[in-house]
## 1
Amino acid sequence: AAIVLYDALHRRAVLGIPLLALCRALAMAVPAAAISGRAAISGAADEPWQLLAWFAAPLFVYTVLVSVVARREVEARSPARWLGVLLVIPALAPIASLSSGLLPPLTEERAFGAAFLVGAMIAWVARAQLFATPLPSRIAARFLPRRVKPGGVRVPRAIMAWIGGICLVDATSLVLLGQPALALVALGLFFVVTVSHARIAGS
C-alpha cells in the first residue's frame, strides 16, 4: 500500500517524502514480521518488536532528510542542502540500541566492526556534504579535485552519496544485531551502489 500510494502521490512533497521514508522503514519491518510469524508457528518465543524501532525509525528519518534535499537538488542556492549536516544523527542512531538490553552480548569483534563502520559512515556523510556546500577555490581544489568547480556545488552527487550511505547504516545495524556475514553483504552493496553511480544517475 505504501508503494502504491507513493507512486501515485510522489510529486506532492507533503505526502511523497514521508511515504518514501515509510517504504524504506517497512523494508526492514515486513521481513521482521514474516520471520516473527514463522517463529510463532514453530512455537518459538515472541520476537522483541521494540528492538525494531531502533533500526527502522532512523532509516525513516534518514530517508526524509535526503528526500527533502533531493526535492531542491537543482537549486544550487537552496538552504535545504544544509540538511545533509543532520544526516549523521539518524545514521548513528542504531548504536543507541545497545542500551535496550535486547541485543546479543557485544563481542570484541562486533565492537571493532561497528566502530569501523561508524567511522566510515561519518567520513562518507561528511564528504558528501562537501559536494553540497559552496567552497573557496583553495579548499575545493584540495578536497574535491576534478570533481567540483571552485566555489560551485553539485547537490545531485551529494544525494547519490547519501543514498549509498544507507548501505552503511544497514551494515552497522547488522553488526549490532550479531549478523556479521549479512553486514559484509551490505558493505559490498555499498561499493556496488557507489561504483554504479559513476555511470547511472541515482538522483
## 2
Amino acid sequence: MSSPRTPTDDDIALAEGLFGAIQLFKSVAMRAAQACELGSLERTGLLFRLKAGPCRAGWLAQHAKLSPSAITETVEALERDGFVRREQDPLDRRAVRVALTADGRRHLQRFEHAAAVALAERLAPLTPSQRQRINQAFSDLREVIGTTDFTTSSHADITLRATARGHKEAQSAR
C-alpha cells in the first residue's frame, strides 16, 4: 500500500479556488431561494432530491443529514406551502412518501432560472477565452470526479444557454 501523497502548493491553490467558487455558488443560490419564496437552501435541497420522484421521509433525512424530527418539521412546512404532498407508498400501504407538487416543481424551476441568471450576471465580464478555459476545466473535473451531478438541472429543456438569451425566451422554451 502506498503512502498518501502530500498536496503541493498548486493542489492547495486549486482547492482554495474551488472553495471560493463554492462560496459564490452558495451565495447566489441562497439569494435565489429567498427570491423564489423557497426560503432556505435546506428546503431547496429537499425539493431537488424530490425532482426524480417521490421518496420516503427517512431517505430524505438520511441524504439531507437531518434528524427524523427535523425532516418531519421541514416536510410539514413544505406541505403547508404547497410544494410537496404526502402519498401512500404503493409498495407498502403502511408507509408514506413525499412527492413534489406541480407548484413545488414550478418554484424549483424559478429558483434554477434565478440562480442561473444571477450567476451569468456575475460571470458576464469573462472573455470568450476565459469561458472556454473554465468550460474545459469543468470537463476535466467531471472526468476526474466521475459524475455530471454538479452540472445537471432539474429540467432538461432549460439550460444556462437558454437563460442567457433572456427570461422571455427561456419561458417559451418550457
